[in-house]
Every structure is written in C-alpha cells, then in structure tokens.
Amino acid sequence: MKSTSEKVWTPDEIIIPPHGIEIARNGRPMYAKALGLKSIASVTGVIGNNNGWSKEQLMHWANKVGREHGVSHREFTDDAADIGKMAHSFVEHYLKGRPLPSFPNAPDDHVTQAMASFENFKSWFNNLDFHLIVAEYPLVSLFLAVGGTIDLVALVNGFITLVDLKTSNGVYDDHKAQVAAYAAMWEERFPLYPIQQVWILQIGKADGAFAHYQLGKVDLERGLLNFCLWRILEVLRQAKTKAQVDEAKDMMDRFNLKFNQEDYEW
After folding, report:
1. Quick one: which of 67, 133, 138, 240 could link to 29 by a disulfide (CB 3.0–4.6 Å)?
2. Does residue 4 have a pLDDT over 90?
C-alpha cells in the first residue's frame, strides 16, 4: 500500500465496476475459475494454515476454561461469543445499509448488551463523513496467487479506506496480515484508487465492546511481509515435484523484488 496519496476524493470520482467473479451455489466466490486455474489459495486459508501459534493458545485457553468452570470449552465459547456476534452483525448491517437483524432466540440481556455496543459504535461512527464504495467485494491476485473478499472499502472523510470487521478479543498479527494482503490485492486491481487508510473495527467476543484501530505503515509492512512468507511456506509444504518447488522460488523472487523496488513506499 502506498501511503503517499493525500488526495481528498469525492464519491462521484470513484467508479468501481461489478467484481465479475462467479459465485458458487454455496455462496463462495470461484476465485480459481476467475484466473483460469483448477485451484487457488484464499487469503484466510493461507493465514489459517500457517498461524499455528494461535491454535495452541486457543487450546490452552480452552483447557483452562474447562478446569475453572467445569463446562465444555465449546459450550463456553459459544455462549461467550453470542454477544460479540450479535454486535458484529448490527455494525455490519448498518455499515452496508441493510436493516438491522433480529435475534428472537437470544437471551434478552445478551441482545441488550450487543445493542449497547452498537450504540457506542454509532456515537463514534456518526461523526464521520462515510460513503460506502463496495461491500463483500471478491478479488483475485496474480501477484500473491490468492483470492479473497474484502469486507468494505469506503470513502471516509475523503480518504479511500479499507475497513475490516473482527469479532475478537484484540487485534493480532494475523489480522494485520489479512488486511495488508487485501490492500495489496485492491491496488493490484484498482491502481487508480489507492488505499489511503486501513481500519480494523474490533467487537469484543464476550461483551461486544467496540474499538477502532487505524493501522500504521509499519503494521501494514509487517503484515504484508508475514503474509508473503506464509504464502511461500504453504506452497513449499505442499510441494511434491521440482516444478512446485520452483513455483515457491519464483514467488520468493517476485515478493523480494516488490519489497525492494525504489518506488515502493509505505
């Protein structure tokens, strides 16, 4: 992502065409078909397959929950995530201009807490000049050799902003890698409309608490470096032929060239 663009845009200056990627019956974009390939990795798949440290932390936490509360970790996480999921859904629908969902089967106190979180979000959001550009927009990248779907790109106070919603207890390295990859994919597809800001809107899993993070250039540079390394490692793990090893080498050269170009500024 190039952060040198200080242009202040107006909504009528930005024209984004339909994505043109076929959607399968299960609702998933057919990334590989868009590039004429049999298969292709996804951004979330690359991160999930390489982010083993977070799974170890999760299992440690689940074991701790079981000992302390005498309940199944699955039962505990489902209940704890209920408020966060509802608050996330309220925020997501609001940003995308859709009617707010209802949760008739959820406990009243959970819905009340999720709605309180949503109201906190609105008190922050309503001070912004916000114009939605695209929502749930699938992209494919020849450079990264992946497909992925961006939550939102919007014009916020005149700046093109990539927005990602997370239901989590914090903002972690894998989140930063994901949005950095999305920003790179967007600019590969739309170089005339560079991403100027990257935001993560975080909704607390257990209590629905809202927090806003604007990632700086160091966060994004580290995030994209992490993603590129994970992408190479994934190809190498699956490599069974010399051609597949060569693919990883080519990918490494391509990424290295990109990061060392003189005009690549964060």
Report:
1. 138
2. no
